[in-house]
Design a protein that fits this description.
By secondary structure, the protein is an alpha/beta fold. The chain has a single domain, classed as Aldolase class I (TIM Barrel, Alpha-Beta Barrel), CATH 3.20.20. The chain is built from seven helices and eight strands. An eight-stranded parallel barrel has the order 1-2-3-4-5-6-7-8. Helix 6 packs parallel to helix 7. The longest helix is centred in the C-terminal third of the chain and has 17 residues.
Length: about 230
C-alpha cells in the first residue's frame, strides 16, 4: 500500500490546482481563527469545488462549537473533520461525520534527535493510550506539541510512536521534502501531512516546487520499502 499525501493549509486556487495535479490524496482547509491560514467558509467552498471526486477535502477545527462545524461542513462540502483541540470522543461522535483526531507529541528538546533518557517509555505509553481513547477515529494525526493548537511546523522523536500504530496514523509535524522519506521508512504510516513544509515566503502561499519535491520523496521512499512494510 502506498503512502497517502495530504497538503494542508491551502488558501489559493492555484495551490489547490497544483496539489491536484501533483497527485495529492487530500487537501486541508483551516477553520481555526488563530491560524494565519484561516479560511472563510464561502472561500473554502469555492476551493472545494476545484477538487475532483478522488481528492478528499478535510476541514481543520480547534475546539469549535459542533453546530459551527456542522454548518461549515455542509456549506463547504467537507469529506472529513480533523479535530486539533481538546475534543472528547463524545464530541467527535456528535458530529456524525468521518473524523480524524490530532494527537500532540513532545517536540525534540535539543539537537540530539531524541527525548531525555528515561522519558521515552511513558510518552510512548501515553501515545498508545490516546490512540486507544480515540479508537473510533478513522485515523489519528500525530503532530508536535506546541503552546497553541494546530500545526507547529516542528518535528518530534519518531521513536515515541508505538511500533504497531503505523497504519492508523497520519504523520505530521515539520515534515518536508528533506525528511519525509525518513519518516515513512521509520514508521510506515498510512499517510503523511505537510503545511509549513511546502510553504512559500508567505504562510498563505505554497511553493509548487516544494510540493513536487515532497511528493517525489514520498514515491521514492515507497519504492524502497520492503513488501511487508507496504
Amino acid at each position: 500500500m502506498r503512502t497517502r499525501v495530504k497538503y494542508c493549509g491551502l488558501v489559493r486556487p492555484n495551490d489547490v490546482d497544483a496539489a491536484v495535479g501533483i497527485g495529492a490524496d487530500a487537501v486541508g482547509f483551516v477553520f481555526y481563527p488563530r491560524s494565519p491560514r484561516l479560511l472563510d467558509a464561502a472561500v473554502a467552498a469555492d476551493l472545494r469545488r476545484r477538487l475532483p471526486s478522488w481528492v478528499v477535502s478535510v476541514g481543520l477545527f480547534v475546539n469549535a462549537d459542533p453546530r459551527e462545524i456542522g454548518e461549515i461542513r455542509r456549506q463547504v462540502g467537507l469529506d472529513v473533520i480533523q479535530l486539533h483541540g481538546d475534543e472528547t470522543p463524545a464530541d467527535a461522535r456528535a458530529l456524525q461525520a468521518t473524523w480524524w483526531k490530532a494527537l500532540r507529541i513532545p517536540a525534540l528538546p535539543d539537537q540530539s534527535g531524541s527525548v531525555a533518557e528515561g522519558t521515552a517509555d511513558p510518552v510512548r505509553s501515553a501515545v498508545a493510550a490516546s490512540m486507544e481513547r480515540y479508537r473510533e477515529a478513522e485515523l489519528c494525526l500525530l503532530d508536535s506539541l506546541s503552546p497553541g493548537y494546530g500545526g507547529s511546523g516542528k518535528t518530534f522523536d519518531w521513536s515515541l510512536i508505538p511500533p504497531e500504530a503505523g497504519r492508523r496514523l497520519i504523520m505530521s509535524g515539520g515534515l518536508d521534502e528533506l525528511n519525509v522519506a525518513a519518516a515513512i521508512e521509520s514508521i510506515s504510516p498510512f499517510a503523511v501531512d505537510t503545511s509549513s513544509g511546502i510553504q512559500g515566503q508567505n504562510p498563505r502561499e505554497k511553493d509548487v516546487g516544494r510540493m513536487e519535491q515532497f511528493m517525489e520523496a514520498v514515491r521514492l521512499a515507497d519504492g524502497r520499502r520492503k513488501p511487508h512494510q507496504r
